[in-house]
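Lecture notes, part 5. Sequence design as translation. It can be helpful to think of inverse folding as translation between two languages: the language of shapes and the language of residues. The source text, in structure tokens, appears below.
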């Protein structure tokens, strides 16, 4: 099993374990290096660092930044080894979090207007009352628990996906600006799960050109439960664009039981592992 897992979530975004619980689980399943990469937030890092110190696990500081590319495509950029106290990064993340909070209120109103009830109390309990942590996954869980849908996938397909009745296109930061925050904070930028954006090959290559031009250094070659042939395709993209390769489970806890810490296809041998940059 790979022991380096560079993509995971805690209750500071849409994961179900606290940072301490996440680190403890990682340690117990044999992960020795873990990056905590919550959506647009580093708030869980201090707790994870403390827990990691106690059990002797190497914790990489991280964050998964939501990006709107070319004004219409959602991309996720995982930042690794960032200085979480850097003011440029934190100012940027604060704006993203506020946008998240505003969107949450809009989504709740849309769901109610669709006759799906008042989700607000249930959603707030999932995020310890912090509106700015709310993501679409929290609404998807509400829809499952209230019986409106049978699975997270169905919640996104029917209501929360882009272009669906409660799926709003978000004014996330643009790619160049997101990379500038990461570089200001001394981090390494990784294009996350490149095959999950529904981009054509041409568009994906254009995104990679821009990513590379703006100083992006790595691509997530093996992510979540991606199939081996997809991993090989992304490894070829890494080679073609001369990018380092990252790997991670994208662990979210009990609501996505198909994702397991430390579980993903190993990197093909020709890849340059991104951890060479994480010194
Ligand atoms: P947000 O950042 O709030 O827009 O939410 C994005 C998150 O929603 C992703 O990181 C996934 O955890 C989750 N997600 C997106 N699409 C799906 C889907 N089709 N099925 C399950 N979860 C999804
Ligand atoms: Mn997520
Ligand atoms: Mn993602
Ligand atoms: Mn993720």
């Amino acid at each position: 099993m790979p022991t380096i897992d560079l993509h995971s979530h805690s209750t500071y975004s849409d994961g179900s374990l606290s940072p301490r619980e996440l680190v403890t689980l990682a340690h117990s399943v044999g992960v020795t290096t873990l990056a905590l990469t919550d959506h647009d937030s580093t708030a869980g890092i201090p707790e994870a660092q403390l827990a990691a110190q106690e059990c002797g696990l190497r914790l990489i500081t991280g964050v998964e930044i939501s990006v709107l590319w070319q004004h219409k495509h959602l991309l996720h950029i995982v930042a690794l080894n960032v200085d979480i106290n850097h003011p440029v990064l934190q100012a940027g993340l604060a704006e993203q979090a506020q946008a998240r909070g505003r969107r949450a209120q809009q989504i709740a109103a849309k769901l109610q207007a669709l006759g799906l009830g008042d989700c607000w109390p249930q959603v707030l309990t999932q995020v310890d009352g912090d509106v700015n942590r709310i993501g679409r996954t929290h609404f998807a869980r509400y829809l499952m628990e209230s019986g409106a849908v049978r699975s997270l996938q169905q919640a996104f397909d029917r209501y929360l996906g882009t272009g669906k009745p409660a799926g709003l296109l978000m004014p996330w930061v643009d790619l160049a600006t997101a990379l500038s925050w990461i570089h200001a904070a001394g981090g390494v930028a990784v294009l996350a799960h490149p095959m999950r954006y529904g981009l054509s090959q041409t568009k994906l290559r254009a995104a990679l050109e821009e990513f590379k031009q703006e100083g992006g250094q790595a691509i997530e070659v093996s992510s979540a439960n991606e199939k081996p042939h997809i991993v090989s395709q992304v490894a070829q993209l890494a080679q073609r664009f001369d990018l380092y390769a990252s790997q991670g489970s994208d662990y979210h806890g009990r609501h996505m039981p198909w994702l397991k810490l430390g579980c993903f296809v190993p990197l093909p041998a020709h890849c340059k592992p991104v951890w060479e940059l994480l010194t």
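The translated text above is only one of many valid answers, since several sequences can fold into similar shapes. The mean pLDDT is 97.
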